[in-house]
Structure prediction request, 162 residues.
Amino acid sequence: MSSDLQLFILRCPDGQAWALSKVLVNWELSYEWDGDLAEPGEVVTGDGPYTHRECAHLDAAYSLADEIIEAAPGAWFMVWTDPGSTSDCQMAPGSLARYTPQLGKHEAYCDGEGQPLFHDRGIRDAARKGTAELDKELGWAWSNAMEGAAEQRVIKVSDPED
Prediction:
């Protein structure tokens, strides 16, 4: 069970960039598909993705999101894994996690472009509970917040322990 992973960092406070860069290094992410591996002290926001080919598991986006939130709770990002095959050769959807400090984390299954996939039952159940629950289920608040929110920067910071 493996799949490609893409991480788009839209924003990151300078004071959290070192911790975020360490997560990127620990996950052995590269900038763009054939780019250099992430380096300690450097975070690129608002531009191309950090990537990893053949992640260990289809739910890797959820695990990476949790680590980023712990290291850099002020960051805005979206991360997903492409759909892939399971150990019994069945196709499975990818995983998507989106995060802003104001909204928290949204998780969903996704396609290869990071677009959320929804089940009729989940949509019907959320719709019965009202607009706010439907918005949460579909992730519209995250989509709206992230549209146009990217800050294109290269943040370079030193190890705060030095």
Summary: The mean pLDDT is 85. The first strand starts at residue 3 and ends at 11.
